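Work Package 4 report. The design task specified in the project plan requires that, given a folded chain encoded as structure tokens, an amino acid be chosen for each position. We show below one input record used in the internal validation round.
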């Protein structure tokens, strides 16, 4: 993650969560923080992600990555050389005199 994104996230967290919330204890703070992070990652569109939510962007990214493998039905590389014709393997082996 680039430094600008971290600074943007830190600013939003401070302005929208830390400055606006009173915590009763550490457990309360953890619960509220988990809810805020879930909201931030699943319901809020982010301009850096083309105004998609991070969860939506991740889903789009994983399906885009998985598509080429599904199209080929295999991730194995294709053979570079053509297979030998059947006649090549049918020739008798030379007999060595000796």
């Amino acid at each position: 993650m680039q430094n600008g994104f971290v600074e943007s996230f830190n600013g939003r967290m401070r302005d929208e969560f830390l400055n606006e919330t009173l915590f009763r204890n550490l457990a309360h703070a953890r619960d509220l923080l988990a809810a805020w992070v879930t909201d931030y990652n699943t319901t809020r569109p982010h301009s850096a992600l083309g105004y998609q939510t991070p969860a939506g962007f991740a889903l789009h990214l994983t399906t885009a990555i998985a598509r080429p493998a599904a199209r080929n039905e295999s991730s194995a590389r294709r053979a570079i050389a053509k297979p030998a014709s059947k006649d090549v393997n049918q020739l008798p082996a030379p007999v060595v005199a000796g």
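The chain has a mean pLDDT of 79. Validation will be extended to a larger panel in the next phase.
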